[in-house]
Design brief:
Strands 1, 2, 3, 4, 5, 6, 7, 8, 9 and 10 form a 10-stranded antiparallel sheet that branches. It is globular, with a radius of gyration of 23 Å. It has 361 residues and is α+β, with helices and mostly antiparallel strands. The protein has one domain: Catalase HpII,  Chain A, domain 1 (Beta Barrel). Keywords: Heme, Iron, Membrane, Metal-binding, Oxidoreductase, Peroxidase, Transmembrane, Transmembrane helix. Belongs to the catalase family. It comes from Gluconobacter albidus. It holds the Pfam family Catalase.
Length: 361
Amino acid sequence: MAQKPAPPPILALRWLGVGAVPAALALAFLWAGGCFSPGRVTQNRLMGELHNAGSYGHGFRRAHAKGVCVSGWFDASGDASHLSRAAVFHEQHVPVIGRFALAVGQPYASDNAATVRSMALRFMPPDAPEWRTGMNDPPVLPLRDAHDVSDFFTAQQSDPATGKPDPARVKAFGATHPWLRSAADVNAHRFISSGFADDTFHSLDSFVLSAADGTTTAVRWTMIPTQPVTPSDAKAGDREYLFRELISDIHTHALHWHLMMTVAGPHDAINDPSQIWAQDDQTLDAGTLTLNSIESEDGGPCTGITFDPLVLPPGIQPSDDPILQVRSAAYMRSFSLRAGENRSSSAVTPTLIQTPESKKS
């Protein structure tokens, strides 16, 4: 028996289904580009604002452009295992690849004691999903959401006459964002250590740990050094003095930090990284980070890694902190851009990192 042709409405639905997927993809790209919401903070908008604020680009990270690769391992203490089922809190000798960097857009900028320093880590349990985290040394982030980030980058736009941000524009940013003043004051008065090795690094954003029984706990974390902490002592005339000291330290002995988990109290803000948490919150020592190897980013193991804070294993979840989405989107766009660019040598070259013994050979 000959098959009856489908009624016109059904044919229309079939054709609609065929076209729905590419149409949805096209709309998604338009939405991501901000075509339907000119005021929306998009990846391209953030990259453009970073460029105007002096980001070098050309194959380097758009922010935290000057850095070096490190590696080592993490040993869990077990003290946080009841809060999270993530393997990293249960296992010993988890391999780690990391990166120390300065929060500058220029990869050849001179080291400066007051520049924000960062520690980024990739934990790689042998038989479990990895975990990536990026931490800075100021104790709190003086930005609340995507619009704060965009406004801040705009305020940092370089004046063509000086090559530096216009002080009036920077001052205006503070005046129009009074809710960020307390966080900025805390950071401005923070203790500045002598270098990377004796610095403390903070997650800034909040995350949610989930235990095997489904219990969830909001936390922030901090890497606290076991090395003696001394005040900053900048070396005049040495453009790479912070990295030279780090290289010397790791060549001399392994460096260690304790991963301290701070449990959110009843009045702590989970979704606002500009809010300071209570001083009497519960803390747990989750384990010890050991770093014993250092390499230039010119061929080093961290060069191709994006330390996206949303690369999380089961047992660690993002909170509803909006800055997490901003960071993730910006990191991925930065990676996409630099992957297609030719990159010159880093300021911290392989020669700079060589030991005296290897240089003789």
